[in-house]
């Protein structure tokens, strides 16, 4: 699928791209009457697959287990951390089977390798980073993908952490990231910059859309530093009891959190939640 690159976020977002791709969260479209607008209901799944082949948590089994989870739970949005680029393609095929009446699409952003200036690589040589899966009604559904590298990084770690967002026709801005694991303070700075600078800048330029960020933030509720320190006060948040979080703007209701057993295939559970996007609440003006 052809991509279109844009540069209008360069100054605000540091290393950032705007690339056209196909991605639309599924779920019933809002229906309106004279008095009410029904919410759009989506199921979102976050997984850290530890599939680089280099980390101690690697088992070689997480991709197969992720496919089982997607088949069983049929999420509308899947965010993926610690994956190889081809993992997205493999899971997209499973996702397409689950949502056979729609067009499955994906996005990927590699982490950057500071010494080489190129992509961080999995042991198999593929780019390593974060990914996102969803589906659209037709291949021609309008969309935009925003991606980049956090401007703050732990200089002791050669891996520079990425972020990835998809905006579809101003319906939803869906994002994922994998924050620094070697420095809690760097992770907190990356979290705050993403939620308070990058995402508002995207909404200013691309138009407001309800926003959800799902990923392994390497921060805890009640930890030091506390993940709540970087979460805007009007946002909702749920977590897996550890490092994975789903954070949403005021116009998305989070509920029905479910922790999914990965059977030892990776060191993180799957985190599943329901997003209810309230179409009757107008978008807040960009800040």
From TrEMBL:
Task: Name a GO molecular-function annotation.
Answer: hydrolase activity
Domain of life, source organism: Bacteria
Q: Tell me the keywords, alphabetical order.
A: Endonuclease, Hydrolase, Nuclease, Signal
Q: Where does the record locate the signal sequence feature?
A: 1-34
Q: Which PROSITE patterns match?
A: PROKAR_LIPOPROTEIN (PS51257)
Gene3D superfamilies in alphabetical order: Endonuclease/exonuclease/phosphatase
Task: Please state what the protein is called.
Answer: Endonuclease/exonuclease/phosphatase family metal-dependent hydrolase
Query: From which source organism is this entry?
Result: Micromonospora luteifusca
């Amino acid at each position: 699928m052809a991509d279109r690159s844009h540069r209008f976020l360069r100054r605000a977002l540091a290393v950032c791209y705007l690339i056209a791709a196909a991605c639309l969260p599924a779920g019933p479209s809002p229906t309106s009457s004279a008095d009410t607008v029904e919410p759009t209901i989506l199921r979102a799944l976050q997984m850290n697959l530890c599939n680089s082949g280099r980390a101690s948590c690697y088992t070689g089994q997480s991709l197969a287990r992720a496919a089982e989870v997607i088949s069983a739970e049929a999420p509308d949005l899947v965010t993926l951390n610690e994956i190889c680029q081809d993992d997205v393609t493999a899971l997209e095929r499973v996702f397409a089977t689950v949502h056979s009446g729609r067009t499955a699409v994906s996005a990927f952003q590699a982490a950057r390798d500071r010494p080489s200036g190129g992509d961080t690589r999995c042991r198999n040589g593929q780019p390593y980073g974060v990914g996102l899966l969803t589906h659209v009604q037709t291949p021609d559904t309008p969309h935009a993908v925003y991606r980049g590298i956090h401007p703050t990084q732990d200089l002791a770690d050669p891996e520079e952490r990425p972020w990835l967002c998809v905006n579809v026709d101003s319906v939803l801005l869906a994002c994922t990231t994998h924050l620094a694991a070697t420095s809690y303070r760097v992770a907190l700075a990356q979290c705050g910059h993403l939620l308070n600078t990058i995402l508002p800048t995207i909404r200013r330029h691309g138009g407001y859309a309800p926003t959800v960020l799902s990923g392994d933030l390497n921060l805890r509720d009640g930890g030091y530093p506390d993940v709540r320190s970087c979460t805007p006060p009007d946002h909702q948040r749920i977590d897996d009891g550890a490092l994975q979080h789903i954070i949403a703007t005021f116009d998305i209701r989070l509920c029905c959190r479910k922790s999914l057993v990965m059977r030892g295939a990776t060191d993180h559970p799957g985190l599943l939640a329901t997003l209810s996007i309230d179409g009757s609440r107008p978008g807040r003006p960009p800040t």
